[in-house]
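Page 42, continued from yesterday. The earlier attempt failed because a stray header line got pasted into the input along with the sequence. Redoing it now with the clean sequence only.
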Amino acid sequence: MSPGVRALVVLAALAAVVVIGLAWRARNGRYTPVAAGVRARAAATPDEAPHDRLTADEIGVPLGTRRTFVQLSSAVCTPCRRTAAVLSALADDRHDVSHVELDVVDRLDLVRRFDVMRTPTVLVLDPRGVVVGRMSGVVDRAHALAALDASVR
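This time it went through. Structure tokens are written below.
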């Protein structure tokens, strides 16, 4: 392979890595709503759709009257600590919002049930425990507030 071709291959690989990195960064912490049909089914038929909702008994804290953030974290996850600080502060500021952090090692049932692929993953619950959305990666206050605003609609 000639030096010119090698240089083009290296530049193409570098460009691909930059594009992937920018896409990853743009999605980090962003709120993704659950499909409206799934939410409606879980809300209308709570006994038939238990996989789409969580109860206070399952997460160990009372559900918020507006929203509950269920954070699935791991002990070695630095972004998890930052996300927990943001969500705890938000829950402290707002009486209608709850936050709970659960260790993925202890809650493999939830990891499997909600297809958690990375930590932190935050499930956003409505007052009945229906999962209305989720966020993955570092969540800052702006992302959390956007999730609250978006999930109310």
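Notes: The mean pLDDT is 84.
Reminder to self: strip header lines before submitting.
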